[in-house]
Amino acid sequence: MKHKNGNGFPYYLSLDEAKEKGFTPIKVRSLLEFYTLRGRTTNLIRANYEPIPDLKYCVLAYKNDEQKEDRYYVRTFAGYPIGDLYFYERSLTFSGEDESVESLRQHVQSERVWLLLNKGQITHISKMLERLWNANLKDEGKVSYRCYIRIAELSLKMEDFTINQKNITGYKTAIRLMEEKINNLWKAVYNNRCV
Predict the structure, then answer these.
(1) pLDDT of 28
(2) Which pLDDT score, from 0 to 100, does residue 182 have?
(3) Taking the model in full, what pTM does it have?
(4) CA torsion angle for 165, 168, 174, 179 (degrees, to 10)?
(5) Which residues lie closer than 8 Å to 177 by C-beta, 6 or more apart?
(6) Contact, 98 vs 84, CB < 8 A?
(7) How deeply is 99 buried, as exposed, middle or buried, from its count of CB atoms within 10 A (0-12, 13-18, 19+)?
(8) DSSP state, 21?
(9) Domain boundaries, the chain
(10) Mean pLDDT by 10 residues, the chain (195 residues)
């Protein structure tokens, strides 16, 4: 059952209450989990990512003098562009100083955030993971969500590195090492050894 505090903010007392409402809670370990690949794309580049539509998440607030129990406050993701939240870089629309973005980043870093995925979102992510397998590996299968996040983070890091670090010493070596890591992760995925 969803509750409300004195200010009208909704919360759950446990993640089981969210499950009863039809959500699947997923602990957030990376800011990239707020995003999905656009359409049927399988290329893990920045331009292909968009916020998961209608995404809800909860933030754990530990008990204190005012509240006698832990609470999972429910929020709706504001749909920040990937450059704002994940890369935290300045642009024409983002000053690089946004309290709500900073707050969400801090909560994720302190491991107090869970995505609340509905059935439609779970189905969409599952199909995306199948497409990624089929585009990168032989046979039929599905990439595990954790492995997908690790590969996607490395791919985005490599893309960002190629754009912003072209003129540094050791550039080609760094790119080769990142490509090796990504290839090794795909091999681990195929051999069911990616954790």
Answers:
(1) 97
(2) 93
(3) 0.89
(4) 40
(5) none
(6) yes
(7) exposed
(8) T
(9) 3-137
(10) 78 92 95 94 93 96 74 92 77 65 90 96 96 89 93 93 83 91 92 76
Which H helix or E strand runs over 84? helix 82-85
Q: Which amino acid is at 116?
A: L
- Written as six digits, the tokens of 97 are 């100083």
Token pair recorded at residue 66:
């005012």
Q: Would you give the DSSP letter of residue 14?
A: S
CA dist 99 and 107 (Å) reads 12
Strand order from edge to edge, sheet including 113-117:
3-4, 10-12, 71-76, 56-61, 113-117, 24-27
Structure tokens at 25: 């809670």
* pLDDT score at 72: 93
Q: Of 5, 147, 31, nearest to 84 (Cα)?
A: 31
Q: Please, are residues 138 and 183 in contact by the beta-carbon 8 Å criterion?
A: no
Phi, psi for residue 164 in degrees, rounded to 5: -100, -10
Q: Calculate the CA dihedral of residues 193, 87, 60, 120 and round it to 10 degrees.
A: -70
Record the tokens describing residue 150, joined without a space: 């690790």
Structure tokens at 28: 């957030």
At residue 93, the pLDDT reads 58
